[in-house]
Amino acid sequence: xxxTRSFKDTIKARADRDPAFRVGLFKEAIEAVLSDxxxxxKLLLRDYVNATVxxxxxxxxxxxxxxxxxxxxxxxxxxxxxxxxxxxARLKQREGVxxxxxxxxxxxxxxxxxxxxxxxxxxxxxxxxxxxxxxKLTGR
Length: 140
What we know:
51% helix
C-alpha cells in the first residue's frame, strides 16, 4: 500500500519551500473575495494561514482567540468586514506583499456602445514576484 500525505501537509511543505506558491495562494484568496466569492476566499485564506503562519500566531498578532479566527474562515463562518480586513492586513504584512485595487475603464465602447469596467488587483512581494488580476465588472 502506498503512503500518502494529507492535503494540509502537502500544501504546507510546498509553501515552506516555494515563496511564489505562498504568494499565489494568498493572491487566489484575495481574488476570490474581490470576485464576490466569499466562500472560496475564506477557505483559501484558511489554507494559506494553516500553511504559513498558523492560527495561533495570527490570533496572537490580532489579539483574538484562535478558535474565533478558525470559525470565521470555516465554510459556515460569517466574518465581519473589519476582522477579515484586519486579518488580510496582518497576513499581507507577514508575507511582505502589497496590493492595490483600481478600477479601469476601457477607452472604446463595446458593440452595444457600453463602456466595460474592470477591477484590477496587483500583488507585489518582497521577493520580486508580481501578479495581476483583472475582473470585468458590468458594462455601462
